[in-house]
Amino acid sequence: MTTPEELISSLKWRYATKSFDPARKIPDKEWAALEESLVLTPSSFGLQPWKFLVVQDQAIREQLVPHSWGQRQVADCSHLVVMTVKQNLSTADVDAFVQRNVDVRGGSVEALKGYRDMMEGFRAKAETEGWLQQWAKLQAYIALGQLMAAAALLRIDACPMEGFVPAKFDEILNLNAEGLTTAVLCPLGYRSDTDKYAALPKVRFDRETVIEWR
Amino acid sequence: MTTPEELISSLKWRYATKSFDPARKIPDKEWAALEESLVLTPSSFGLQPWKFLVVQDQAIREQLVPHSWGQRQVADCSHLVVMTVKQNLSTADVDAFVQRNVDVRGGSVEALKGYRDMMEGFRAKAETEGWLQQWAKLQAYIALGQLMAAAALLRIDACPMEGFVPAKFDEILNLNAEGLTTAVLCPLGYRSDTDKYAALPKVRFDRETVIEWR
């Protein structure tokens, strides 16, 4: 259990790291915890419409820099997480999740038919109405939020990044062949001593502006 | 600082709470930390295109239940967070954020003109192309991910909920008048002793399925 003070101190410590120290790597134990936090991320219905790529090949990372608005974080971080989602979550994906339920909790696929049909109905509606991939992206942002908080608690730096060209990432990482597309990036590692952004006060609207009791 | 073990133990402890104990309320100190974690949530450009409603009026909560697929969590939780986003983030919103930068960090609006124009260019493009509200919703899901992780670390239960009728929520909470719309819900509190879902193993795909090194 964490104290409220420790939680807030961690969230205040974090910032969108502009410059990573390329020499500092996340230790194995801490990285394993971050990977597990990705695996444990909650998602709507539990469907987990994602794959998280950890891009460690330096040549690939350098290829990604010009398609990341030139931001060096993708090359200089310790671990680069590329959050991808399924372009078209399929009926087979729903059935794979139902099977996973049975594998983990026991029971039978037949007993879960009502649950399965409800999820498939949702999926089919989203596909027909054209917002299935967008829904998958929303789920990826839950993973992003949880990952950034998890990293901060471990005093590991991160930089959430929307500033990149998804089509180029998909091409370089050969994602179309897997039916995936890039949703958002999260380089992780340790801030450089020279990153002046680390010392700047955090800019947030005040509590009264963003929170309202009803 | 939190240990990797504590982080993972917290994330494993959490689950989508199906039944809250209506008699148990989150203590003030813990609630204040959760509110602060909402305020501190990172967002793209830092624009914070949201307002978080904490709906505590029991009559309003009961009105929301039928529009939440009958799920009692919205009425029985300790604190109901309704995450709303701006329907159309405006140029004035961008300028308010720039002003907030100046208030917090000093300097002048004039010195931030390049930064302001970059953000406004992004906003205007999103508006023209019709994905501005969807982008705002993505940011709300970062808040959802961080809030669920924060709650778990404090051993407070939560239930992320997409199963509701946004138009009805907007109507009951009078959000259209404020230019807001409901993105996602997060009731928080303490699990009921009778919630059988608390004891079920978590269903996640295995590490090899959702994580891939490149």
Total beta strands of chain A:
5
What is the 3D shape of chain A? globular
Major sheet description of chain A: 4 strands, antiparallel
Report how far the terminal alpha carbons of chain A are from each other: 30 Å
Q: According to CATH, what is the topology of one domain in chain A?
A: NADH Oxidase
Assembly type: homodimer
Mean pLDDT of chain A: 97
So what's the CATH class of one domain in chain A? Alpha Beta
The helix count of chain A comes to: 9
Can you list the strand order of the major beta sheet of chain A?
A: 1-2-4-3
pLDDT < 50 stretches of chain A = none
Approximate helicity band of chain A: 40-55%
Description:
The structure is a homodimer of 214-residue chains. By secondary structure, chain A is α+β, with helices and mostly antiparallel strands. Chain A has a domain at 4-90 and 140-192: NADH Oxidase. Chain A has nine helices and five strands; from the N terminus they run ααβααβαααβαβαβ. The first copy, chain A, has helices at 4-13, 28-39, 58-64, 73-76, 91-105, 113-129, 132-153, 166-172, 207-210, and strands at residues 50-55, 79-86, 157-158, 180-189, 211-213. Chain A has a four-stranded antiparallel sheet, sandwiched between helices. In chain A, helix 5 (91-105) packs antiparallel against helix 6 (113-129). The longest helix of chain A has 22 residues, at 132-153. Chain A is globular. Chains A and B meet through helix 1, helix 2, strand 1, helix 5 and helix 7 of A and helix 1, helix 2, strand 1, helix 5 and helix 7 of B.
